[in-house]
Amino acid sequence: MIKCVILDDELLAISYLKLLCEQIEDVEVVKAFNDPKIFLNEIHSLDCNLCILDIEMPGMTGLQVAELISGSHKIIFTTAYKEYAAEAFDLNVVDYVRKPIKKERLIQAFEKAKEQINTIQKKTFIEWNTNIGKTVILTEQIAYIKTSEIDSRDKDIILNDGTPIVLKNLNFKNLLEMLPSKDFAQVNKKEIIALSSIKVLGTNEIITTIPTEDEHFLKLQIGDAYKNSLIELFTK
């Protein structure tokens, strides 16, 4: 879901842009501003992941605003002037959309934003309801995941330091979409392993770096349906 905030000094431009956004799937306009200073005062308290900034505004340009927020939010610029393009892309923004804005062109910009936002999320963390409430878990801290023996809808996570966490009501398909594919692999129908936790990859078995109560290391059986994909991960 794209949760965006709009900044444009022209109220008609804001209304038109909000109308376009409402016609695009998986896009929500959280709030709109026509004053850069008010925008900057509120932006970090809003639940959003994308800012649509007009460039030409009195008092403070969209370029100046972008310099202050680019580290925390993805940005799409809108403008009627093409001469700002080079400067805009120097700020590593998602896209630069010329006015008058067309719906098809805005959809393209949102697709680029989704790709970048998803990449960031997959590289850094997952957020889900757990046995200790809604929790943010850094993916680099995850060692091993298995289907819960108490409730198959839940997934048990073991972190690198041995801490257990239970993800509530989450299937493997959706879980794997949240995880960086280069760092995790499904081993069988009930288990996922972080590649960094693999000590030995055998034909039918994985020996992990995860200690067990009998002072050995956790071993996982490789399901026939998962052998080829595991091998591919180690031969890329």
Any key phrases for this structure?
five-stranded antiparallel β-sheet; five-stranded parallel β-sheet; 30% helix; single chain; Rossmann fold; OB fold (Dihydrolipoamide Acetyltransferase, E2P); alpha/beta; 236 residues; 34% strand; 2 domains; elongated
What structural class do helix, strand and pairing data support? alpha/beta
CATH topology of the largest domain: Rossmann fold
Radius of gyration: 23 Å
State the domain count: 2
Let me know the largest β-sheet.
Answer: 5 strands, parallel
Percentage of residues assigned to helices = 25-40%
Organism: Chryseobacterium ureilyticum
GO molecular function, one term: phosphorelay response regulator activity
Keywords: DNA-binding, Phosphoprotein, Transcription, Transcription regulation, Two-component regulatory system
Protein name: DNA-binding response regulator, LytR/AlgR family
Describe the protein in words.
Residues 3-114 form the Response regulatory domain. One of its GO terms (biological process) is regulation of DNA-templated transcription. The protein is elongated and about 70 Å long. It has helices at 11-22, 36-42, 62-69, 85-90, 103-124, 172-178, 227-235, and strands at 2-7, 27-33, 50-54, 74-79, 95-98, 125-130, 133-138, 142-147, 155-159, 164-167, 184-188, 191-194, 198-201, 205-211, 217-221. The strands form four sheets. The chain has a five-stranded parallel sheet with strand order 2-1-3-4-5, sandwiched between helices. Strands 10-9-8-12-11 form a five-stranded antiparallel sheet. It folds into two domains: 2-123, Response regulator (Rossmann fold, 3-Layer(aba) Sandwich); 131-235, OB fold (Dihydrolipoamide Acetyltransferase, E2P). Helix 3 links the parallel strand 3 (50-54) and strand 4. The chain has 236 residues and is an alpha/beta fold. It has seven helices and 15 strands.
